[in-house]
Write a sequence for this structure.
């Protein structure tokens, strides 16, 4: 947070007051003059999206075992999902609630408005600009959302990985749900879904989610830092200030956009680092896949290594070689190619890619695989190339500092000599 109020804050208040004086009726006149047919009216369906399905990544389809993973089936409130050996189908009675998208560990269901990355970016941007960011649902809000409100078909559309990353970074995110709003909702599984996801996100991030139950208590104030940044940027653009656009004070929307882009760049670098560390493909040349949720989670852990200890309950498959027949059913079932069986029949798993679902152990006909806890430090990816570049940069900086120090000593000797000559 910025420090005490200063002249910039006073100027911002004066600017806002002057705008109010110039247009005392605010948006009332504009609203009255507008064509009623052209005005945006609240329509809940605009915030809902039927997911697209990629059966290729479904554990059940890949393994042929329709009970290998049932998370989407368990969370769907209207039993609209059907899984067969031929693929995943979605019936016409789908409520477009997004719960299947958040529940599926391999992201078979893709609704672009509620993908982990799009939700992280949207909520992160608002949390960076406003004093408070509210996440709510169409039934709770019942109107067009304001700028710091994220309107979802159901709050359960946000995955636990996304909540973990957001709560580790921001302290000003709240859920807006009036008391009893979920009681009569036809998305009957939504409340349990978001309650579990938020609880796990809070536990893993050591963060806390806010809860607002009354609309009159909601605030829509921008943060002081954002308002100051926008004000300074407008001064620069107007030519009314000599402040350089590169000054740290000039933040605002550009700074928030840069922050979101930096997070995206970190996600890309994470995948590159992981592929350099363990290889992009298995011995069978299947490319390992990182889901969006996994990328967001791992990116947060790279910045906050200490949080990895909270994932101590996660389990990955371990193989008993005396029981394994190298049939390959486990590898066939893992659509993310996190586990591998080499040509000599040795089983291995890469914890960073594994989503800890246990499907490989379920489909093993010999019971050779069991789920066991592992060292969560493996989730913090070491990038040896980046570390090498960092060491090289540090050595270069040390050489420059040494050269500067030697030059300063030489200059002092010259100056001392000149002073002695002047004294003579």
């Amino acid at each position: 947070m910025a420090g005490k109020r200063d002249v910039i804050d006073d100027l911002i208040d004066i600017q806002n007051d002057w705008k109010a004086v110039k247009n005392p009726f605010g948006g009332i006149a504009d609203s009255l003059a507008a064509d009623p047919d052209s005005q945006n009216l609240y329509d809940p369906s605009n915030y809902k999206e039927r997911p697209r399905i990629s059966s290729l990544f479904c554990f059940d389809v890949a393994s042929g075992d329709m009970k290998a993973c049932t998370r989407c089936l368990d969370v769907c409130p209207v039993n609209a999902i059907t899984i067969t050996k031929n693929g995943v189908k979605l019936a016409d009675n789908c409520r477009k609630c997004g719960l299947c998208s958040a529940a599926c560990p391999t992201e078979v269901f893709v609704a672009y408005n509620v993908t982990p990355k799009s939700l992280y970016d949207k909520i992160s941007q608002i949390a960076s600009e406003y004093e408070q960011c509210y996440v709510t649902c169409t039934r709770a809000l019942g109107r067009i959302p304001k700028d710091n409100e994220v309107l979802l078909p159901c709050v359960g559309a946000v995955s636990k990985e996304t909540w973990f990353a957001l709560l580790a970074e921001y302290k000003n995110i709240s859920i807006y749900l009036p008391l009893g709003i979920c009681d009569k909702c036809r998305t009957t599984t939504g409340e349990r879904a978001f309650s579990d996801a938020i609880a796990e996100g809070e536990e893993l991030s050591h963060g806390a989610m806010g809860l607002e139950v009354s609309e009159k208590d909601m605030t829509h104030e921008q943060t002081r830092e954002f308002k100051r940044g926008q004000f300074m940027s407008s001064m620069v653009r107007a030519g009314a200030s000599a402040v350089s656009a590169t000054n740290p004070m000039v933040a605002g929307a550009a700074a928030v956009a840069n922050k979101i882009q930096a997070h995206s760049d970190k996600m890309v670098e994470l995948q590159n680092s992981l592929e350099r560390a363990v290889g992009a493909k298995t011995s069978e040349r299947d490319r390992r896949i990182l889901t969006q949720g996994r990328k967001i989670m791992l990116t947060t852990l790279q910045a906050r290594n200490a949080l990895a200890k909270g994932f101590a309950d996660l389990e990955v498959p371990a193989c008993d070689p005396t029981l394994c027949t190298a049939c390959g059913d486990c590898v066939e079932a893992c659509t993310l190619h996190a586990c591998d069986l080499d040509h000599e029949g040795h089983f291995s798993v890469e914890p960073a890619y594994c989503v800890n679902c246990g499907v490989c152990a379920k489909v093993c006909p010999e019971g050779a695989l069991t789920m066991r806890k592992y060292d969560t430090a493996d989730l913090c990816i070491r990038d040896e190339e980046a570390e090498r570049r960092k060491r090289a940069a540090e050595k270069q900086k040390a050489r420059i500092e040494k050269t500067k120090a030697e030059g300063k000593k030489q200059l002092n000797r010259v100056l001392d000599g000149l002073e002695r000559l002047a004294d003579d």
